[in-house]
Design a protein that fits this description.
Distance between the termini: 5 Å
Strand content: 15-25%
Strand order of the largest sheet: 1-2
Number of domains: 1
CATH topology: Arc Repressor Mutant, subunit A
CATH superfamily: Winged helix-like DNA-binding domain superfamily/Winged helix DNA-binding domain
Structural class: alpha+beta
CATH class: Mainly Alpha
Length: 104
């Protein structure tokens, strides 16, 4: 996919439920999903055909909270920007993590 085909960012209303407290809605509006989705996508893309697991992406951005990185996978999968290869690799916790690759 070319950079022009990619449309990063998620509507803040998709990040919260209507019954969530006002603080959750304020937080959803404050998150720069465009920046974070692009950041995560580019990191996954760098791994090429071998793909990567969440631990590898999170290690690249230690200053970002866990949820700021991991919450982007769903949006990128839903948009078809990345795929779950079906392969699993062991993460630092000893549990299996899905291997993700950027769509070409």
């Amino acid at each position: 996919m070319t950079q022009q085909e990619l449309s990063f960012g998620t509507d803040p209303q998709k990040l919260v439920r209507t019954q969530d407290p006002d603080t959750s809605h304020a937080s959803a509006n404050a998150v720069d999903t465009t920046k974070l989705e692009a950041l995560v996508y580019e990191a996954i893309k760098k791994y090429g055909d071998r793909g990567c697991i969440s631990d590898q992406i999170r290690a690249l951005y230690p200053a970002y909270p866990y949820s700021s990185i991991t919450a982007r996978y769903r949006a990128l999968l839903d948009k078809g920007f990345i795929i779950d290869t079906g392969e699993r690799r062991q993460g630092q916790s000893g549990r299996s993590q899905r291997v993700m690759k950027a769509q070409s």
